[in-house]
Specification:
This protein is mainly alpha-helical. The chain has 7 helices and no strands. It starts with a helix and ends with a helix.
Length: about 200
């Protein structure tokens, strides 16, 4: 089963959290709303990403403090979740985003037990790599504002590391531009009581 647009957005929201990119999170929340992603699914993706980010940092600290000896990590268990497939996709994307190879291996292995095809996992990793690059571009903009003076650098200008021909975001970029253009109109309507 190919990744749905809703699953794709939940992965990108999780990766935005993992990367600590508020701009990415805000933009992808707009897209998620337009795709009618439930608040519960968004909250679950955010919680999962925050937990993985935190546990990866804690594990790294333990690794350093224990003189670089490996400690056993618990095996992932997605059976308690309403949607184990979605939980696995979000976890794979987040583990890739935080550069944790040991967690990524475990989440990929667990995803395979759920019969998630390798193509879906590759797409998640591609989305994660792309979002990491976009998050980095926001930081670069702070450090090198002269390169972004005309503000024409949009998501469409920042290609995925695997090459633009593999970018699953062409439609996403266009949707973001449309939603950002509509946002002021929606705010005006809300301020005037919906008229």
């Amino acid at each position: 089963m190919p990744i749905s647009p809703q699953e794709r957005e939940l992965v990108t929201i999780a990766v935005a959290v993992a990367c600590g990119c508020k701009t990415c999170l805000r933009e992808n929340m707009l897209v998620a709303r337009s795709l009618h992603v439930t608040d519960k699914d968004v909250a679950d993706a955010i919680k999962t990403a925050a937990n993985i980010r935190r546990s990866t940092t804690d594990a790294l600290e333990q690794y350093i403090l224990s003189d670089f000896s490996e400690t056993a990590e618990p095996e992932p268990d997605f059976s308690q979740h309403d949607n184990p497939r979605l939980q696995a996709l979000v976890s794979v994307g987040t583990a890739f985003a935080v550069n944790c190879a040991s967690s990524l291996k475990k989440y990929v292995a667990t995803a395979k037990t759920l019969d998630i095809p390798a193509d879906d996992l590759q797409e998640v990793v591609g989305l994660s790599a792309y979002m990491k690059a976009v998050a980095a571009s926001h930081v670069e903009q702070v450090m090198c504002p002269e390169e972004f003076e005309d503000e024409t650098n949009t998501l469409t200008d920042y290609t995925m590391p695997f090459g633009p021909e593999h970018c699953a975001w062409v439609g996403h970029c266009r949707m973001m531009e449309r939603l950002q253009a509509e946002e002021p109109e929606q705010e005006k309507r809300a301020a005037s009581g919906g008229k």
